[in-house]
Design a protein that fits this description.
The complex is a heterodimer of chains A (about 90) and B (about 300). By secondary structure, chain A is α+β, with helices and mostly antiparallel strands. Chain A is built from three helices and six strands. In chain A, strands 2, 3, 4 and 5 form a four-stranded antiparallel beta sheet that branches. In chain A, helix 2 crosses helix 3. With about 300 residues, chain B is an alpha+beta fold. Chain B folds into two domains: about 130 residues, no CATH class; about 140 residues, Phosphoenolpyruvate Carboxykinase, domain 3 (Alpha-Beta Complex). The radius of gyration of chain B is 20 Å and the shape is globular.
Amino acid sequence: MAGLKSILSQSTSIVTRKTGNEYVLVPITNNIADMNSVYTLNETGAFIWEHIDGKRTVEEIITELMNEYEIDKQNAESDVITFIGNMRKYLIIH
Amino acid sequence: MRNFNLNIAGYNIGFEASANGPDLKPSARFLRNINQNNGSDILIRVHSEPFNLPKGAERVFRAPYVEELNGIQFNNVTSFWSVWEYHSELYIWTIFPLSSTEKNAVLKFSLTSMEWDLWIYGTREETDPFEYPLDGLILYYLTVINGDIMIHASGVNNTGHGYIFSGVSGKGKSTMAKLWDNSGARVIHDDRLILRNNGGIYRMYNTPVYNDDEPRESILNRIFIIEHGAENILIPLKGANAVTQVMANCIQHNWGAEIIARLLGSISIMCGTIPTSKLFFKPDKSVIDLILEHE
């Protein structure tokens, strides 16, 4: 479970492709793509994904989301925490 | 003959018997694809003797062979063809389920070399080096190497405009092709196509692999992801949604992050260039009218 001070990085078991402001993510297990579990990230999801870089804390990502989209902390935190929950299989929590 | 070239989907595929290799005889379905030019994009040397996979080669993909009749499976062979990896080399081992003789083959290739080797053993002197399943497999890996796309789709050219109608089995690809055929359009193929990008211009090609059509090709102007519907509805697709819907209909071996990344990249670039739409359609001429209204 990721706390606000946790640092996250992206798992290597996923192939990603940015298309416009969105992402397509294809999970890879034992070198085989799971084509039934392909994810797409909208612009907000893409922003969060790109800020998961092994250096930023969850709290820092929330702050950057607030500033980028001019939304309040509650909404930004909800977006980030929900994203982490949905994508937890493809994230590494430090 | 000791060598021949085929031109399929714009790929010039050369086959050459090695010194001790078998005489080569292309299948009748490829006679219209024989290319008299000496040049080839890829050269496959054909040998007769058995070939052992290198020790340490790892199997990365395996395809079973299942025949079905009226929903009942029979002749289920678990070892049909398989892909093996050894460092940067790839190998396909296969049997030939439709052959009159019991033979095996190993194709050695890589994603960076344009000279491949094929060992076919257990055969008579004269052999077709492009026999099923090698035909589809060689073409598939040529699309991987060239960043092209092999897709479940029917394709038509209507007065110079090329459209593809993509979907898995039962979604209406053949129905759509027939509708356009009846309207006077030229059908490129009603089931599978190779899509190639040449400097930003996309073209679709049929292949004789699944049907011995004459070679056909067309420019590609629009992509439709199709489903049967109670009425005709056209919904533009963009971005990641367009990419995933096209990708779901591509013919792919889903092993290897690099291969997946290449396909994802090719589809992403194509969907950023070619308008893509979801199309629910009634199986009558009204869908053609709808498409032409939106040209």
